[in-house]
Design brief:
Helices cover 51% and strands 13% of the residues. By secondary structure, the chain is of the alpha/beta class. Strands 2, 3, 4, 7, 8 and 9 form a 6-stranded parallel β-sheet that branches. Helix 7 crosses helix 8. 36% of the residues are buried. About 7% of the residues have low confidence. Bound molecules: zinc ion. Zinc ion binds next to loops.
Length: 306
């Protein structure tokens, strides 16, 4: 082999090595890029799910606050009007000497706070109303039973409480309704007669379908309840127990019938803390504390699109 051939062979080897290096580089780049894409996709999915949940919670809180403001002021908004029901209008304004009927209502349970609330109600001999969600663990099933056994009113607040699901269509709403109605019936033997829409009947998520949902509930013989007094425990604003008491008491004096919005979800320990004081203040004022039944004047917000 002469020098020229050797030179050519050397060049050829070097070229092959170079090609090999480039190929390895490309494969490594593509692999890293693919792995990164997969990881980013997973992270984004998790992020989207968590954001969706936060939106549900925020929309709920926003609607709950908005509604109370609207109910009190009779505010007209650009895209909807809140029409007060008869009992939430002038007819429900208390005058000197009127007896105040107060319905304490607890949404979003059961949770470990439900038992604490039931203990407090028992201590004071008070009956209340629980608008429950669907949970099938042993503690929750026991809580449904305890609510009924101790003479409180068990009412529905949807099975899933997921706005994006129940308010997606009438069909989805019906399915969710049947699930919570059946769960309560199978667990307690009680056919619940009362419903509270997650976010109330004037929540903005379901505006387009709300009249269909209401019509459906009417057909089932179900009465839906909103509220005209908010304890404020639904807001992200951290009210102290004293402030919750103040929120309730300052509104209850205005009405003949007050349906008070409170929550027995597991994060609502301030509500548990405030409850004895709320009951004592109500009793001191001479108010009648009652569970919702067929004699209760209906408190409803109704939203109509313009
Ligand atoms: Zn709720």
């Amino acid at each position: 082999m002469d020098e020229k051939e050797q030179e050519a062979l050397k060049k050829q080897r070097e070229r092959r090595k170079r090609v090999q290096r480039i190929r390895t580089g490309i494969i490594t780049f593509i692999s890293v890029w693919m792995i990164l894409s997969i990881v980013l996709t997973v992270i984004m999915c998790v992020k989207i799910i968590s954001l969706q949940k936060q939106i549900d919670v925020l929309v709920g809180n926003y609607d709950q606050n908005k509604k109370v403001e609207n109910t009190e002021a009779g505010v007209q908004n650009d895209d909807f009007t809140v029409v007060n029901s008869v009992t939430d209008s002038k007819d429900n304004l208390a005058e000197e000497g009127d007896i105040h009927k107060v319905y304490l209502t607890f949404d979003d349970g059961p949770s470990e706070n439900t038992d604490k609330i039931l203990d407090i109600l028992d201590d004071y001999g008070i009956k209340a109303t629980f608008f429950v969600n669907g949970r099938e663990d042993e503690e929750s099933l026991a809580a449904y039973k305890r609510i009924v056994d101790e003479g409180h009113t068990i009412a529905m607040h949807s099975y899933s409480h997921k706005y994006s699901e129940i308010y997606s269509s009438l069909d989805a709403f019906k399915k969710d309704y049947e699930k919570i109605q059946n769960l309560i019936y199978d667990t307690t033997g009680v056919e619940s007669m009362y419903y509270r829409f997650p976010g109330g009947s004037s929540n903005r998520v379901s505006n387009a379908h709300m009249s269909d949902y209401i019509k459906f509930l009417n057909e089932q013989g179900i009465v839906y309840f909103d509220w005209n007094v908010s304890s404020g425990d639904a807001t992200s604003q951290a009210f102290t127990a004293d402030e919750l008491v103040e929120n309730v008491m300052s509104d209850v004096v205005k009405y003949k019938t007050s349906v008070v919005l409170m929550h027995d979800a597991k994060t609502k320990s301030t509500t548990v803390q405030a409850l004895p004081e709320i009951i004592e203040a109500l009793q001191k004022s001479g108010a009648l504390i009652l569970p919702i039944d067929e004699n209760t004047d209906v408190i409803q917000h109704t939203s109509i699109q313009q």
